[in-house]
Specification:
It is a single chain. With 285 residues, the protein is an alpha/beta fold. The chain has 2 domains: 3-145 and 202-284, Rossmann fold (3-Layer(aba) Sandwich), CATH 3.40.50; 147-193. Helix content is 55%, strand content 11%. The protein has 10 helices and 8 strands. The protein has helices at 3-19, 23-40, 50-55, 87-106, 121-130, 148-167, 169-173, 176-193, 215-224, 252-284, and strands spanning 60-63, 75-79, 82-85, 111-114, 135-136, 205-208, 228-232, 243-246. Strands 5-4-6-7-8 form a 5-stranded parallel sheet, sandwiched between helices. Helix 5 links the parallel strand 4 and strand 5. The termini are far apart. 34% of the residues are buried.
Length: 285
């Protein structure tokens, strides 16, 4: 065998090995870099792009044995024992979901960001904060949407305790140990409800980073007739989800990229609200 042919064989073999790497290894390779980028700021991105999605590993599905047949329209093929997601479908679905989110934000409605799995928490918190939207990133509590009475009472309690703590009322009335216990109660309430303290009634829509991990949020939204935009991996049940975004729901790079698209869409809608408000103020003058 010639040296050129030998080199080509080695290169081909190496490529095949890379293609068959476990999806978790692909996730880990990108994790540190994505966390660092996410910590700096939410990135501005252009229109959804297949190349960017591919580079982020969005096409890696779960093991074929774990798939949900309802996701069949979004599956491209099967490689080894895992499914490959059709990124053309991902772009198509984003092309429908993003304008909807822009329109929702432009109407002054809130979009609730939901992502409680470990690799999604910081992404959700930073993204929602960057566009002043409510979020849930620790744990979805049953009834967060469907049991408004309990939710409102807990949030009211949290705000009252924070107000008393900030004003010094608690410190003036109680000893240090009791004040510390009040602070612990405030911290516990914030862990549960901090992201939704400013939620004004029902949100205009939900953006869910993992339709499987946060199936409870999806169920409540569907029950109330609220539109849902959700990242759905090959094992997800897309039933009731108005805007299915087929993609790898484990890779931090994928979650960050799609969330960036969502943030850009929401920011565009919010800008329209601000522009209208300024126009109304000027007309009043």
């Amino acid at each position: 065998m010639s040296e050129d042919n030998s080199d080509q064989t080695v290169a081909k073999t190496a490529a095949e090995v890379r293609e068959n790497e476990n999806r978790d290894e692909n996730i880990n390779n990108n994790s540190a870099e994505i966390r660092e980028t996410s910590a700096e700021k939410i990135r501005e991105v252009g229109a959804p792009d297949i190349k960017k999605l591919f580079e982020a590993g969005a096409h890696f599905g779960h093991k074929a044995a774990r798939w949900n047949p309802k996701m069949a329209p979004f599956i491209h093929s099967k490689r080894g024992d895992s499914h490959i997601i059709n990124l053309e479908k991902t772009v198509e679905q984003l092309a429908k979901a993003l304008p909807f989110l822009t329109e929702t934000a432009a109407k002054g409605k809130q979009i609730l960001f939901v992502g409680t799995k470990k690799q999604a928490r910081e992404i959700v918190r930073e993204a929602a904060d960057s566009v002043a939207m409510p979020y849930v990133c620790e744990r979805w509590l049953g009834g967060m949407l469907t049991n408004a009475a309990t939710m409102n009472s807990q949030i009211k309690k949290l705000k009252l305790l924070e107000k008393k703590m900030d004003s010094g009322e608690l410190a003036n009335r109680y000893n240090k140990l009791e004040v510390q216990r009040f602070q612990e109660e405030i911290d516990a309430l914030n862990a549960k409800y901090g992201g939704v303290k400013e939620l004004r009634g029902k949100p205009g829509a939900l953006f869910v980073l993992d339709a499987v991990s946060d199936a409870g949020a999806v169920r409540e939204a569907v029950k109330l007739g609220l539109p849902v935009v959700a990242i759905c991996d090959s094992n997800a049940d897309p039933t009731g989800i108005e805007y299915v975004v087929p993609a790898n729901d484990d890779a931090i790079a994928t979650l960050q990229l799609i969330t960036d698209y969502v943030v850009a869409a929401v920011r565009e809608g919010a800008a329209k609200v601000a522009k209208k408000e300024n126009s109304d103020k000027n007309s009043e003058k």
